[in-house]
Amino acid sequence: MMNRLRQIIQHNLWAKILALLIATILWGYVMNDQNPSTEASYTVPVTMTNAPDGYQITQDRDTVRIKVRASRSLFVSADESDFKAYVDLSKAEEGTHEMKVKVDMPAGFELVDARPDSVNVTLDKIKRKKMKAELIITGATAPGTTVAHVTQSVNEVTLEGPSSALEEVTRVIGYVGLSGNSEDFSLQVPLTAINADGREVAGVKVTPGSANVSIQLARGLTKKVVKVEPVIGTDLASGYEFVSARPDPAKIEIAGDEKTIANIQSIRTEMISLADFTQSGEKTVQLDLPDGVLVTNKEIKVRVEVKKKEKE
User: Fold this and answer.
1) Which residues contact 11 (CB under 8 A, 6 or more apart)?
2) What is the distance between the alpha carbons of residues 119 and 99, in angstroms, rounded to a whole number?
3) pLDDT tens digits, residue range 252-289?
4) CB burial string 60-82: b at 16+ within 10 A, e below
């Protein structure tokens, strides 16, 4: 049986090999002629894979334009959704990095080009920190009344967000409008994280996000407007000199018994330490109020100007 099979195979062997070769050439010719290789371009979204936990991730481009090559028949059933562009973040570290875009394609396709072939990816670590919650009192109470006492349920909040955003936050504030009230009142005040320009810092979560504030009013008190006098410490670092201190506001309205406030021409601030000033900047300070004197806001900002001493 095996000998018979061997004889069949070996009979006219070279003719059979030649026929197979010719058939292969003809098949390749027909396939190339009827189903030629062609190219097409697609715009596909760039996704992030293997992203580490605890980071906010941003990228400078959301899509890439890819060019692929394949037999014409393969394009009949293919569309943009079959192609995946991605960046592998498994080895990425905090900061901004230029990272290669990788492309997954269906079988039979060849990647010709990808533009851009890389994207800038920023990994910003999510952090937390605590800050004091400040109240800003606006407006005025009804004539003949003044703010005697302000109580807030939240004095400190927790901020959570990308480290770059947290670095922008200079204050957490809530606005309390007096709105001509003539009686004691309470309200819920939203708390907002703001930067040095007084603008809300996006991407930062404040917890708790609001505070209950109670306002107690006093009646029958005399009011007057006086100057604010910053009190400057003597602990400025060696090599620097103090230039000036400008309070904001420069004048405030005080209230109290007529005899108590009659001789008051200015209100001093608490002692302002200069130990941390190696350049000019602002500082929020408390007013040093005499007994029996009331103000709407007990905190003000002081702009402190310092400069390096000139070499002699």
Assistant:
1) none
2) 6
3) 999 999 899 999 999 999 999 999 898 999 888 999 99
4) eeeebebebebbeebeeebeeee
Question: What distance, in Å, lies between the first and last C-alpha atoms of the chain?
Answer: 114
Contacts of 84 (CB under 8 A, 6+ apart): 44, 47, 103, 104
- Per-residue pLDDT of 206-244, as tens digits, reads 999 999 999 999 888 888 999 999 999 999 998 899 999
Q: 90: which strand partners?
A: none
* SS3 per residue for 176-225: EECCCCCCCEEEEEECEEECCCCCECCCCEEECCEEEEEEEEEECCEEEE
Q: What is the four-CA torsion angle of 181, 183, 189, 194, rounded to 10 degrees? A: 50
pTM over 0.85: no
**pLDDT at residue 288, as a whole number:** 95
pLDDT digits (tens, 9 = 90+) for 62-80: 999 999 999 888 888 888 8
Helix (H), strand (E) at residue 40 = strand 37-49
| The two structure tokens encoding residue 65 | 């334009």
**DSSP annotation of 309:** P
